[in-house]
């Protein structure tokens, strides 16, 4: 069974090559992570051209900061964090991220997350789910993507987005309800 150290050392030689500015190592690292990181960008940003642009900016950052990577975590987690941060920066620049957050609500008034309406997975294609997810507003889609697809918890999401934990939870709950409604509508 792999240990935490095994995951931290994944692609160690590639990273060391990148730290030495070895172009072949950089191409190999990019080739390994570009597609999954593009998919992450696409889930968060909705538009292919935005995802491509942010991915390129993220990899410029990655290669510019690779000498600071010290193998305390896995390289994939480190890369993912940079990509997520670039996506969030992009959304903030467009000022779309906060349009769904209700500034009139206070943490004390935030409802606990409730289960989303039931959606039968039978007959549901991946493409149908992707289409419905793209229809979510920016704020809902970002929180849903970070929590459901990227595995961040609400405390991490709150820190990343600069929102409260309660807001993260309520956004996630609302996003799930809206996604379920969209999936039920498209039957």
- Computed Rg: 18 Å
Helix content: 55-70%
Tally of alpha and pi helices: 9
CATH top level assignment of the largest domain:
Mainly Alpha
Extended strand count:
0
Mean pLDDT: 82
Estimate the global geometry from the Cα principal axes.
Answer: elongated
CATH fold-level assignment of the largest domain: Rna Polymerase Sigma Factor, Chain: A
Topology pattern, helix = H, strand = E: HHHHHHHHH
Kindly name the structural category.
mainly alpha
Low-confidence stretches: 102-120
The fraction of residues in strands falls at under 5%
CATH level-4 homologous superfamily of the largest domain: RNA polymerase sigma factor, region 2, helix turn helix motif
The major pleated sheet works out as: none
Task: Using the 3D structure, state the CATH architecture of the largest domain.
Answer: Orthogonal Bundle
CA distance, first residue to last residue? 43 Å
- Domain count: 2
Description:
With 187 residues, the chain is mostly helical. It has helices at residues 4-8, 12-19, 23-45, 48-65, 75-94, 126-135, 138-149, 154-161, 165-185. Helix 3 (23-45) packs across helix 4, helix 7 crosses helix 9 (165-185) and helix 8 (154-161) crosses helix 9 (165-185). The protein starts with a helix and ends with a helix.
């Amino acid at each position: 069974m792999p240990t935490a150290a095994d995951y931290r050392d994944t692609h160690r030689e590639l990273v060391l090559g990148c730290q030495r500015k070895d172009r072949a190592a950089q191409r190999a690292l990019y080739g390994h992570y570009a597609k999954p990181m593009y998919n992450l960008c696409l889930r968060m940003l909705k538009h292919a051209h935005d995802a491509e642009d942010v991915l390129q900016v993220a990899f410029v950052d990655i290669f510019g900061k690779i000498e600071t990577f010290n193998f305390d975590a896995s390289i994939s987690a480190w890369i993912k964090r940079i990509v997520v941060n670039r996506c969030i920066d992009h959304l903030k620049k467009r000022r779309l991220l906060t349009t769904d957050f209700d500034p009139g609500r206070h943490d004390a008034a935030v409802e606990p997350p409730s289960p989303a309406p039931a959606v039968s997975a039978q007959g549901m294609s991946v493409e149908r789910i992707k289409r419905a997810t793209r229809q979510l507003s920016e704020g809902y889609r970002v929180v849903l993507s970070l929590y459901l697809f990227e595995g961040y918890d609400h405390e991490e999401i709150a820190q990343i987005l600069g929102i409260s934990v309660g807001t993260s939870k309520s956004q996630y709950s609302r996003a799930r309800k809206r996604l379920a409604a969209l999936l039920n509508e498209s039957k």
